Amino acid sequence: MHRRSLFRRLFALISGQGLPLWAQSTSFPGKHESTLKELAATVLPESLGRAVTDAEALRFVRWVEEYRAGAEMQTGYGFTRVRYKAASPAARYLEQLDELAAGALAQPGMAARRQKIGQAFQAANIRDLPAVPDGVNIAADLMTFYFQSPPANDLAYSAAIGKDTCRTLRNAGSVPAPLKKETSGAALR
Amino acid sequence: MPRFDSDVCIVGGGISAVFMAQKLSELKPNLSITIVEAGKRLFDAENRMSYRRRSLLYGENAWPGDFIEDQGGEGIVSRTMAVGGSAMHWQGHANRFSEEDLRLHSLYGLATDWPLEWAELEKYCCEAERRIGVSGAPSPHPEDQRSEPYPMPPMPLTYNLAEIKAWAERAGIPFTGCPQAKNTTAYDGRPECQRCNTCMICPTGARYSPDYTYKKLLANKRIVLHDRTLVRRLIPHDRNKTIVAATGSNAERPGEPVEYRARWFVVTSGYAWSPHLLLNSRSSRFPNGLANSSGLVGRYMTGHYFITAQMEVNKKLYPGMNEPYPLISREYFRCAPDKPFVRHDIQIFESTTGRRPRLKSETGEFLFGDDLLSDWRSRTTHGVARVRMYYDSHPSRESSLTLDPANGNHLGDPMPRIVHRMDEAAEARDAATQAHIRAIYQRMAKANGTKILSVSKSDYQDHPSGGCRMGNDPSQSVCDSYGRTHDHENLFVVGAPTLPTGGCTNATITFVGLTLRSSEHIAQNL
Asked: Is A125 on the interface with B (CB under 8 A)?
């Protein structure tokens, strides 16, 4: 076994990454499903409606469940170094949901809740949304999960672009159709 | 030691290897051909939709296992080590070089001429396009005349690209869709493109990758493929200069060397690992490595720098329609011999720069929910184009790949270290080239009354090649125009490493064209 592979596997075992997926994340969101849905309703567009933000929260649960610690990461062009996904963020998320339930989400009113979450971002030096959730902060990751998605892209452009979905070449030259209520791109998710 | 015998042993299993083998097996059906590749075969096309999904959602490697952990290097060295090589995950841009690339010295007094004529290479580029399956539109420049039409009609311009084309052409520069190794009709058993927007991993097979050809060759028993087998050294004959064997190690049995015996050896290991193998094959008889009497193995490493601008387009665009598909202009592929030399392509992609969701407003406040969405929407009324120009960056002799004793793999072999250096003339004109390119950005912006949002120059050379350059003079080159090394009559190096200069646009069609020409030559001489 290569030395770096050995170290990687040892690290995975020590950090819990080597555990089977069910052992890593079946407890997520545990008792905090309602907290997670409250969080989604707080940080995602309120115009989506509660049913949609609840559904996004549950999609995010699936994302956490399917997270694979130790998976090879995408790398930049011309780089030979291999990087691996960190340990499952599930445990950290649960701690943060505990804090959110008692703190930001216990505040009366949306503005106060968001102010508290913003303070947490500030404290964690979170400045922007990463391309994919990075496991640092559950609120930022939930926002990334939604706002970087094809349906959110459609919503922002008010058009059925269907980014990252497989489409025909026909009609490529036409302006994307105005957005219907049910956005495209769901297949990816 | 396990020993495998064949007529031709191909070392390295990328795109050049597969077309070398395919054509050889057509021209000489009874030939025994063994391809030896260090990486593994990634033939599970049925899983690519799943890999793609995980890449998008988690940032995972879309090509799991396409590397050997400690087989890396310093400088621009692709991590990919798998059957099919880097062309497994290329974007499929299939534009060509031009006559000027082959006649830089005779036309402009720069760098060196290639030891073959464009008219001849052009025929093999057509063959490469047929075998790969390229869709494209004819260039508006008569100098880009083709001897055959593209195999498939061009990829239709998306609404975004059509708008960007109109915007760009207001500066008086003509653009077409960039030729693509993507099917616009069903072709060679693969389907039409579905604009999945992730050409780096094509889930449908519409974008060519070499695994499709490998699978056909294997199914028809035209080749033997040994993957996960790293060839570490080529072994010369005791007395003469022929190569008698390639030796290496299989990943499953690292302690047990394997040997490949053949009449002909063809190194198709790309720009990094081909010179690396020749240098690593050093011995007391060949202390500087094989094929290296000129001292030029690992020299004249080439490629090209590029400058990228993000430019505002005064039209509403809809990012995500087909982001990997660019426009291209070949307006500056040639310049008058009596004018200062400047040579580059122009590629334009739809862009999301400044048009992505963001967490903070202009005033630094955190944004949530509908406020974030409103902020995002407010920035979508005008589009952005990414305008990139690759420019001629001719290499100096000191542009090198060397063996790095401080960086070894688990077998103890030193890994490559690549340092790109331009020659004196290229260095001397670099500021003027950059000024010329920036003036084009300004011209495009002025013609449209739009802003240049940013301009940046690359700090590395893209589309790398070279390291075993071809030429007629054995003291100035490693191999002839067919890739036959000057020092070893039965040893060829083909594809990317043989390029004397790296051109100013994507190079895969040129690599494959050269390989097909070499294949024909080898078949004729067997």
From this structure: no
Question: Taking 80 as the threshold, does the pLDDT of residue B220 lie above it?
Answer: yes
Q: How far apart (Å, rounded) are the C-alpha atoms in residues B40 and B84?
A: 9
ipTM of the assembly?
Answer: 0.92
Chain B CA closest to residue A4: B69
* C-alpha dist (Å) from residue A17 to A10, B51, B56: 9, 20, 21
Cβ of A172 within 8 Å of Cβ of B322? The answer is yes
Compute the distance between CA of residue B282 and CA of residue A145 in angstroms, rounded to an integer.
53
B364-419: pLDDT as tens digits: 999 999 999 999 999 999 999 999 999 999 999 999 999 999 999 999 999 999 99
| Residue from B269, B66, B54, B406 nearest A80 by CA | B66
- The residue of B58, B67, B81, B352 whose CB has the most chain A CBs within 10 angstroms, and thus the best one to mutate to test that interface, is B58
| Arithmetic mean of pLDDT, B345-349 | 98
pLDDT digits (tens, 9 = 90+) for B326-345: 999 999 999 988 899 999 99
Q: Which SS3 state, helix, strand or coil, does residue A97 take?
A: helix
Residues of B whose CB is below 8 A from A166? 194-196, 203-204
Q: For residues B84 and B201, give the distance between their C-alpha atoms in angstroms, rounded to a whole number.
A: 13
Given CB atoms, is B252 within the 8 Å cutoff of chain A?
Answer: no
DSSP 3-state percent helix, strand, coil across chain B (nearest 5): 30, 25, 45
Q: Does A78 touch chain B (CB under 8 A)?
A: yes
Give contacts of A67 with chain B, Cβ < 8 Å: 58
